[in-house]
């Protein structure tokens, strides 16, 4: 094979995103990385389209989120017309990255 196998096929990174039942928001499962970023950004775009005051992002089943994935979340929250995004049970790196690059960003509330 020229160039070797496709990294998306070899990599075990996967991301599933579904609506939260009974609340405005999404639940993600898997990893948020370079391989899954298009799906993550699409889910955040849909979240922003449906946003009405408070949107929830449930991440208890996310094993890893890279800096670019946190950036996409922060930019989505900053571009909302009003309200906030409540991020529930994120992986430990998410609040650290938010604090490092977006200290005091009041559009995102992290609920551990």
Automatic annotation (TrEMBL):
CDD domains: STAS_anti-anti-sigma_factors (cd07043). Residues 13-99 form the STAS domain. Pfam families: STAS_2. PROSITE patterns: STAS (PS50801). SUPFAM superfamilies: SpoIIaa-like. This is STAS domain-containing protein.
């Amino acid at each position: 094979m020229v160039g070797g196998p496709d990294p998306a096929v070899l990599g075990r990174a996967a991301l599933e995103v579904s609506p939260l039942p009974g609340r405005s928001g999404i639940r993600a499962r898997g990893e948020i990385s370079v391989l899954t970023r298009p799906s993550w950004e699409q889910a955040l775009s849909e979240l922003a389209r449906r946003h009405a005051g408070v949107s929830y992002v449930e991440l208890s089943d996310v094993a890893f989120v890279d800096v670019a994935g946190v950036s996409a979340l922060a930019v989505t929250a900053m571009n909302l017309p009003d309200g906030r995004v409540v991020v529930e049970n994120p992986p430990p790196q998410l609040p650290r990255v938010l604090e490092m690059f977006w200290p005091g960003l009041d559009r995102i509330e992290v609920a551990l």
